[in-house]
Design brief:
Layout: H1 2-15, E1 37-42, H2 43-51, H3 53-62, E2 69-75, E3 79-103, E4 107-128, E5 135-158, E6 161-180, H4 187-231, E7 233-234, E8 237-240, E9 248-249, E10 253-258, E11 261-264, E12 267-268, E13 287-292, H5 293-305, E14 310-314, H6 315-322, H7 328-338, E15 346-352, E16 357-361, E17 364-377, E18 385-403, E19 406-423, H8 432-464, E20 471-480, E21 483-491, H9 494-504
Antiparallel strand pairs: 1-10, 1-13, 2-3, 3-4, 4-5, 5-6, 7-8, 8-11, 9-10, 11-12, 13-21, 14-15, 15-17, 16-17, 17-18, 18-19, 20-21
Helix pairs in contact: 1-2, 1-3, 1-4, 3-9
Amino acid sequence: MLWAGRMRLRTFGILLVLVHTSAACEFGPFPYSVTGIVCRMTKPAALLLNQETAQVIQAAFRNAKFPNITGERSMRLLGKVAYGLTNIQVNDLSIEQSEVELKENDAIHIAIKNVTAFFKGTLTYGYAGGWFLHLFHSVDFEIESSIDLQINIKLMCQKDQVAADASDCYLTFHKLMLHLQGDKEPGWLKQLFVDFISFTLKLVLKSEVCNEINSLAQVLADFVHDLAENFVQDEDISVDISLASVPLIKANYLESHHKGLVLYKNYSDVFSDSVFSPSLLTESRMLYFWLSEHILSSLASAAFLDKRLVLTIRGEKLQALFEMEDTEAQRKAVQMIFQGTSYNNSVAKVWSLAHPQISLQPEGTVVKSLVAVEVSIFPTGEEPLMVLYMEKEITVTIQAAYAEKKLILHPLDSRIEFKVFKCTADPSGNDPSIRNFLQTMISVVGIPEVISRIEQALTSLMNSKGLHLFEIRNPEIITRKGYVIVQLDFSFPNHLLLDFLEKRL
């Protein structure tokens, strides 16, 4: 029975991935205006997840702890007959069919049909009465059951996160038979326990299964909440994923709306002009994420405040930048800047001077940033010398994709405007050759190198959160004016939930 509970839960917990976590339970009159993140899971995803439940339910059922069942009954001539069923364990389990239906504006309905479960344990009984002595016996037993289970899961808000109410739970027994060891016990004993204990057993199973389902539902809801919360947090930077409105259950999808406010140390974001509308998302893919431009811009600002937008380049990487082409102008510029010092004894530092500005447009993500570049050399036996310093405003349009478990950032075009330019080889600034060379170098290899480093850092961060464990199929990252949509199909890695059940149950 616990199996059933967990089964239902398994499916429920996965469905909750969509409506994962925190929920502020008091919502304003216009919840969409403060919506920064939206997650939509469609019916095909729910059906896929439901197909994965059998293995998980079986594992959870076998690990379950079943309560002992005790009682007594008066028998003519024999007096009172006391009994106890102990050491109840699952001996075998099979699930024929499991179905999921999304009942619009109501509940997630899960129907598990033709569950065959065999339990084994020990029956201890004794009787005393009249002129009989007190006698106690033990015999092994097996319970054969065939059950249908129906659960209606309602989603609600509790303590700022999504909670599941699975109390609407029904078990229908098509078969519940108690077999005593080899059927060698007296006929009256077999009849007593088959008729009476089987009835008691049904009541206990119904209670335990539904209670376990309700309990596991919340455990899984908390697990998904923690998973989502961890994914959007890195050290001092995090995203508030409290709900902006109640979760929606539609006939073809589940949808949750989250505030998506960026938090950094004592700084908290403010957001009240979201452009989200349900019509912006379709139902053709399994999973959708909608993110406001404001979130990405705030994350970039938090990264700037946390001094993460700093890059150091030296050695072969530095050589690759300055020797992108073998021309006379290139050789002259390198000689003037580095003054014969090797790349291994030189370093370039790149950092952002102000909060980057991010704008989402149909052609891609437009990033505008004021950037400083400093090149220093370390001549042997001499003091370090800064040979180049420049500040420039860079605007670049980037298209993003995700493939082979890696984030791919592709710069489409860029504009560079020098604000400050200081070079020891040209203190007067009258020689345009160095500036022209650097402008070309930055456009052709400098910006792609910086974007490549960001690409690697973000991929590493997402993988550290476990994204690489999911089988994501045909993901698309689509930018529009003011927002971005990530849409994908997926295969759920059921080993993750198996690990969860083993650790927490």
